[in-house]
Amino acid sequence: MEYKVIPFVATAKQQNVSSSHIAQQLEDLIKAKQIEGWKYVRLESVSTYIQPVEGCFRNTVRPGYMTSYQMAVFIKEEYESPVDPSY
Asked: Is residue 25 classed exposed, middle or buried when 0-12, 13-18 and 19+ CB atoms within 10 A define those classes?
């Protein structure tokens, strides 16, 4: 069994910010990976802390912050070929 995790970042313009537009982007990703033999499992949210950037004199140039990413999880099952009993 093999897994694939792909970042999913939906894009939208202010004129077309609708849940159906976002859902269509996820559906397109699922269909594209399905053609490659991958089966969609779920969408996961992964949170992480971005470390602050410090300047030359230990002053903070950019503070640290939390952010999250959406990850689409896919699975591909590897089928073993049947054993030939004549061996």
From this structure: middle
Cα 1 from Cα 8, distance rounded (Å): 22
For residue 74, count other CB atoms closer than 10 A to its CB.
20
Q: Which helix (H) or strand (E) holds 68?
A: strand 65-76
pTM to 2 decimals?
A: 0.73
Query: 84 pLDDT exceeds 90?
Result: no
Residue 41's domain spans which residues?
Answer: 2-76
Residue 84: inside a domain: no
Cα separation, 85 vs 72, in Å, equals 41
